[in-house]
Amino acid sequence: MNFLVAGCAAWRDAVLKVLDTGRVHARCVESLLDAVPTGTDAPVHAVVLRVDAAAGAAPALRWLEAARAANADLDIVLGVPELDPPLALWCVQAGVLAVIPGDAAEPALSPALTRAMARHEQRMSAGPNALATLLASVGAAELHRRILETALRYLAADDGCLMLPTLGDDRLYVAHSVRCSPGARDDNFTQLGQRIAGRAALERRTVLVNDGRLGATSLAGLDPDAATLGALNGRMRSALVVPLVHQDELRGVLCLNRIRVESEFGDEDLRRAELLAAEAALALDTQDIRERVWAADKYVTVGQMAAGVAHDVNNPISYVLNNVQYALAQLGRPAANLDEIRSALRDAESGAGKVRDIVRDLHALARMNLDEPDALLPLDVAVQSAVRIAAGTLRSKARVKVEVPNDLEVRGTAGDLVQVLVNLLANAGEAMDGNAAGQITIRGMQRGSSVVVEVKDNGRGIPEALVSRVFSPFFTTKPVSQGLGLGLAVSRNIIKKHGGRMTLRSTAGSGTLVTIELPAAGVDTRTAILAAG
Q: What are the residue ranges in the chain where pLDDT is below 70?
């Protein structure tokens, strides 16, 4: 295995000291900027880098982006003086293996380097690459399913469950189970410290049980018969209970059982289980951060649209009030004209309907949609909602033309899809630069098993050198006061969660075309998510 070490002379020696030098080679450079991303002597499998506080993280991150693009399996150990939010999000998106203090010594390096070597051995073996599967951009429920099914396959277990900590108290609940007994599924909650799962979670130790006997690495003083085996109705031959811990925080517990297989769990299974547990904990932590970023971007979008929405609400409200006041005045007259009153009330009803539609659109946009998209959604409804929300902001910038048939349907969550479309409309509006002939066209069509949405504008476009970076978090061509550069990164992740993909083509001075491909309503969304992930 080949390590590339840069930024800290002490770390160069630590790499060789910590690991078995017969299996590991370390090449040291003064600066990553002087190194070829995949290495000059041999392909690099892991990079160990301390970020210089004076220089900042930007040069190192540009190099690491290029290195990751050249080698998707590259493991990155990053030492930073301070993990600020932009850098934390980049680490999540890039799947950084470990982030440690920039002044960390050898003891802090050891676990990260050992884990990098174990992951490399896993990739080289016949076993599945769990990391690539688990870190894909999916919803929470799909991630829980992937974690458990990967664990069952990787460790040859017959059944099991994934338990996660509840919010606000000290309990675990079953987030996903496969072939568990009805009693184990129905008894969804376990107190921390109780039963094997609760004790393993509390003490952060893996528990091995074979034929009712606790393994040597398990919890001292725990009686498995009283704790768990009775609940399993004697079905179990061998069990592993593995806490999922990331950066000293409990993310969950994996409970795996062998019932039909002849062999019991052994030392090699323990090693593999703990490696998988580290990946699963990282995936759960990544999912949590990703969802927080999605939510933050959603509320930023609502805030950016607020002025335009207020204008669009104020006009029909004034219309409603004027017509209601007219109707009331007419009713106060002895010879009231009922036809005119009815007409005024119908006009008021129409204006109130417009307000209702705008409020409904905002409500759909603001709702948190953290699970898998499974509702049947007419595409034109999502497009019209996005256009109504963005109308006030776009009014002085561009005309919007919609060409979406009313018979196109996708499986999705309305708020997520509206969020993506509003982001694209806002970006297109910003690109107009006062162009009096500014136009945005939204087209929808079906191509085979996919529904395709195109959002095209005739704005200033994007220089060719920057097109490859537009989906990177915090990359933006706008002034700092006008955006954080999260919109496209978040939007692409949302589309991936729906089993689709998003691409962008642009030419400076000639506008931009963003294409979204989503599985059509009749396509199995889970299969599409797996393909997209």
A: 16, 18-23, 31-42, 53-58, 72, 84-90, 92-94, 105-107, 121-138, 168-169, 181-188, 211-237, 260-262, 293-312, 315, 362-374, 473-486, 522-533
Q: How far apart are CA 400 and CA 394, in angstroms?
A: 8
Q: Per-residue DSSP letters for 144-191?
A: HHHHHHHHHHHTT-SEEEEEEEPSSSSEEEEEEEES--HHHHH--EEE
Please name the residues in contact with 185: beta carbons below 8 A apart, sequence gap of 6 or more. Answer: 161, 174, 177
Residue 412 to residue 386: CA distance in whole angstroms:
15
* Cross-strand pairs, 176: 162
Model pLDDT for residues 11-33, shown as the tens digit of each residue: 777 776 766 656 677 777 776 65
Q: How far apart are CA 155 and CA 268, in angstroms?
A: 10
Task: Give the C-alpha separation, 502 to 485, whole Å.
Answer: 16
Q: Which of 146, 250, 271, 147 lies closest to 203, judged by CA? A: 250
161, 255 contact by CB (below 8 A) = yes
Q: What is the rounded distance in angstroms from the CA atom of residue 50 to the CA atom of residue 135?
A: 24
Token pair recorded at residue 204: 């952060």
Instruction: Name the one residue in this structure whose structure tokens are 């992951």.
Output: 119
